[in-house]
Description:
60% of the residues lie in helices and 0% in strands. 13% of the residues are buried. The two termini are 13 Å apart. It is built from three helices and no strands. Helix 1 (10-19) packs antiparallel against helix 2 (23-36) and helix 2 packs antiparallel against helix 3. It is mainly α. It has one domain (10-48).
Amino acid sequence: MAHVKDHLSAEELQSGWRGSADGAEARHYQTIWHLAQGKTIAETAAMTGFVLR
């Protein structure tokens, strides 16, 4: 399981994801948001299209 530092709240991460005009930035916010919610790396990768490494 990944540990996400709490520099931003889950609400702030979700807002960054939904409010970003840049696709790469939005995907990064989305990924961190899912991990901050306690989703596993595998679940997050499946939802975002990233691969496990």
